[in-house]
Amino acid sequence: MGQSLGNYNPVHKTPRRSLTNKRQLSAACNFVDLLGPGRVDLNRASEEELMTLHGVDRSLARDIVAYRTRIGGFRKVEDLALVTGVGAARMAQIQSEVFVGEPGSAPNLLSLDLLSCTRVDINRASLGQIQRLAGVTEEVAQGILFHRTTQGPFWRAEELGNIKGVDPALLARLLPQITVGRPRPAPTYSDLRREGLGRPNAATSFHSLREMDMGFLQGSIVPVRPLSQPFSGVHNGRPVLRVASWNLREFGTEKAQNPGVREVICRTLLENGIQLLAVQEVLQEEALEKVCLELEKPSTAGVREWPVDRGTWRYVLMDAPQGEETQEVERVAFLWDCSSGLELLQAVTMETQTEGVSGPHSQPLLGSFKMGDLEFSLINLHLRSDSTARNRQPAEASLDLLKLEPLKPFLQDLFEKALLTLGHLGLSPDASEFAVLREQQLEPLVPADCSTELTRRGGEGEGSLQNIWASHTARDSYTGRWGVIRLGLSNPWIPDGWSWGGIVSTHCPVWVELYMK
Fold it and tell me: Superkingdom, according to UniProt (predicted)?
């Protein structure tokens, strides 16, 4: 699926516990919600009962039942908003009319385990909460957290017996104090306005969760991402091509082994109709292979249940520098769906760095593509400032920011071509450092006031650092539609410090749309 590249120089052209008799309560026990007098139980209601709710017709009731079946029952009322057709406005209208009971069983106070209100869930507890358990030392608490992070969530309370320092006597003392909850598949479409809490713990690894670690059979991961309507590929009655750029941030084999990461990447491509993706910060070729394989033979339910054809995906990655083939070397790549008719004509490395001149994280990659009668070229860039590269303070490096001058000969050579220069560009598009691009009549398609960044907890970050610049010829085919993808970038199986539900990258994918001539 991968290809090797040559070099290009404009002068020398080559071409995410079920309880049988007990119900677990949260610390904020609400008996009104459990009994739900006069309200509809979302986990037991029939289509007809759901149709008694404000604004719910037969079609929506059917969708609610289908979604409930797919996820194994609602866990909280707010999950209803994830059903296509409900949304925030309708959710606000019917929230007081519904409650969530135990899936498949009527709520019964006689069956409630009231002690569970004070028990500690070892799959969610913080270090301090675990240390407050009777008999637990700081060393044992740290061992529990380390096991949970590196081996995945606990499935039985008895598994604590595997932790160093937990002997049979301590385990027997702990069992009445704890509970084991499966890590809740938090909605992929999470609140994107939450603020981040800083850098994840260094012990966290994307390798922490693999299919075998989670106790699932291969390919049986519970789907938590709502199915969306596939993009038609047509705008104003004309076929279009969507081209995107995404900095996947340290995208190596270890990260790609996490099923949540693969599901987010694949579903983002499919849901948004992206047929060609420029990728930055690729550390290992195998990571791209895993994405292509997931699209071809999906192991995650979210990809496997995609309602239409997933296409046939290929990639091209620039070669690692000589002598560094087995190391994690940051590179850029293209990923595309060849079943759509998109054809790679040529991909070559652009030699831009010279001694004493600051340049990109990695050498740019030039790709020439054809789809129907539309021929175009892409320059995939990952740029940064010298202050990042040399650990300088911003004030000390104010004159060292992005030097794009080495790209000028290539831009001149491609002046009459339909050209998109895209990637992680490191600065807002209105920065003076992009004068070289403007001189060649390239214009940014993503506005400078549009943030393309996320905090580590999925909140909106600062800066418009990802962009797609189009030449005057490429703008002739531009539909005028662009997007910054913020939804669907988190997954319950992606680690986030000592917790779960992290995001794939702090950088958002950006896309533009071209008419096919």
Answer: Eukaryota
